[in-house]
Amino acid sequence: VENNGNNQFSWSDTSGCELKFVNNLEPTRCMNATVVDNQFIRVTWQKRNYRFNFKYQVFRMKSDEDAPSFYMETTDTFLLDKQVDVDNFSYAYLVYLIDECGAMSKASNLAKSIQLKAALEPNKTSGFDPVLQFNTYQKWENGVDKYQINLFQEPTLTTFNNIATLNASDSLFVHTSFKVEGFDLCYQIVATEKGGYGQVSHSNISCISTQPTLFAPNAITVNNDGINEKFEIKGLFLNEFKIRIYDRWGTLVFESNDIKQSWDGRIDGKAAMAGVYSYLAEGRGRKNQPVIIKGTLTIIN
């Protein structure tokens, strides 16, 4: 409207935004979140076709975070997330559709990757077993059908053996019958979707180093009470072994190349004198890595 003057009018054209999404609109569906090349995570979701232009907004949450936050926007139906640390965290994703006016659909189902941790833990027979712990995959509509455990063969990590299959509720596995025949022990979990679209999700590959290791006690008794009567060296991942024990004057009193052969604290069939003895234990691993431990041993009568 003209100010004063002839009271003239001028009209603009008409423009506006139409709300293209409503609260009950079916969202997209996340198909899976899976570790790729043991360093990235690929997330895929279903394509939606509408007569209006829209984009996908991806929200992400790391396993040490309390809530998802906006991560990125795309017109693709997948994300290759390179800003991840797959060995130390799992990642959860939600996908929304958003139109030109900013209207947003409901969230997709959650897609959460699997993070695996493998470590050696003591067992009840004075040895060690590989123990695998992982978070369960989330969230296919019908859940997980099974988890497959793969043992990879170094050094390429391209071939593997399926060593076990777990139920959908499992998140722990103890590898009690392992044999060290190759290099390091490297494991991966593969989740399979129950029904639905037959999707799979791979965890990171978690390795247990087979660096040779030796352990030794620091005292034994020779009083025939059946307790701590032998000096036993324990070891892991050894191909070669040798131990020598000396008295306080440097005289060799025991020697063996067999780690299973322990010293009973006797010299020429008689109980050794109480006191401090020294030992030197040496070994080599499957990759020819040396390991040496030395120290003192106290004999108590």
Cα distance, first to last residue? 113 Å
Number of helical segments with 4 or more residues: 0
pLDDT averaged residue by residue: 88
Q: Strand tally, please? A: 24
String of helices and strands: EEEEEEEEEEEEEEEEEEEEEEEE
Query: How many whole angstroms does the radius of gyration measure?
Result: 32 Å
The proportion of strand residues reads over 45%
* Largest sheet properties: 5 strands, antiparallel
**What is the helix fraction of residues, given as a range?**
under 10%
Low-confidence stretches: none
The SS-based structural class is mainly beta
Give the CA-based shape: elongated
Please give a quick description of this structure:
By secondary structure, the chain is mainly beta. The protein contains no helices and 24 strands.
Word description of this protein:
This protein has 301 residues and is mainly β. 0% of the residues lie in helices and 46% in strands. The protein has strands at residues 30-36, 40-45, 54-62, 69-74, 78-81, 91-99, 111-112, 116-122, 128-134, 144-153, 159-166, 172-174, 185-193, 200-202, 206-208, 213-215, 219-221, 234-236, 240-246, 252-256, 266-267, 270-271, 275-284, 290-300. Strands 10, 11, 13, 14 and 15 form a 5-stranded antiparallel β-sheet that branches. A hairpin with a 5-residue loop joins strand 23 and strand 24. The mean pLDDT is 88.
